[in-house]
């Protein structure tokens, strides 16, 4: 049964919304850019768009019945700097981008019970401009615009995991 989208408010122009994915045990993550004029580009590391998001603590799980947290491994990633340009995601003004996360990992329960899936973390770097305008120095320093620093949080998608 598809879950209603869940989102959390923020003063940051980027917000995260979650909904049940198209496949069983997957969650659709939509990141919206509410800025009315500017494209926002962000580094995908440690965000829901990171291919390692399920194991690095970005994805959170709670037992829907008891509210108990299901601990993730919280893997720490050693990444080579500077980040590659393909680790940047650009979202046009008043637009969004979506990716699905497959909830498949040894720590993810497959017992058919209901769980509440969420995401949390901080934007490591975000810029108020297209990816092509980000200089090599900005990328090497993993420093985004000061005004675009902050955290993200999306919660509330109840899913049956099997």
**Strand content bin:** 35-45%
Broad shape: globular
The radius of gyration over CA amounts to 16 Å
Sketch the topology as an H/E string, one letter per element: EEEEEEEEEEHE
CATH architecture: Sandwich
Characterize the main sheet: 4 strands, antiparallel
Helix content: under 10%
**First-to-last CA distance:** 13 Å
Q: What's the total number of strands?
A: 11
> What ranges have pLDDT less than 50 throughout 5 or more consecutive residues?
1-10
How many DSSP helices?
Answer: 1
Number of domains: 1
Descriptive notes:
This protein is mainly β and 162 residues long. The chain has a single domain, classed as Sandwich (Immunoglobulin-like). It has 1 helix and 11 strands; from the N terminus they run E-E-E-E-E-E-E-E-E-E-H-E. It has one helix at residues 136-141; strands at residues 6-7, 14-20, 26-33, 40-43, 59-63, 69-70, 88-91, 95-102, 114-123, 126-127, 150-160. The strands form 3 sheets. Strands 1-2-3-8 form a 4-stranded antiparallel beta sheet, with no helix packed on it. A 4-stranded antiparallel beta sheet has the order 6-5-9-11, with no helix packed on it. Strand 5 and strand 6 (69-70) form a beta hairpin.
């Amino acid at each position: 049964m598809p879950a209603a989208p869940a989102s959390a408010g923020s003063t940051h122009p980027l917000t995260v919304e979650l909904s049940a994915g198209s496949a069983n045990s997957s969650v659709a993550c939509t990141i919206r850019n509410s800025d009315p004029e500017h494209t926002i580009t962000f580094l995908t590391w440690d965000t829901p768009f990171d291919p390692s998001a399920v194991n690095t603590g970005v994805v959170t799980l709670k037992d829907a019945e008891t509210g108990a947290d299901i601990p993730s491994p919280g893997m720490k990633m050693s990444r080579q700097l500077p980040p590659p340009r393909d680790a940047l995601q650009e979202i046009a003004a008043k637009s969004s981008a979506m990716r699905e996360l497959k909830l498949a990992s040894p720590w993810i329960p497959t017992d058919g019970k209901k769980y509440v899936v969420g995401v949390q973390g901080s934007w490591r770097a975000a810029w108020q401009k297209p990816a092509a305008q980000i200089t090599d120095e900005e990328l090497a320093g993993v420093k985004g615009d000061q005004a675009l620093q902050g955290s993200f949080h999306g919660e509330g998608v109840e899913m049956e995991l099997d």
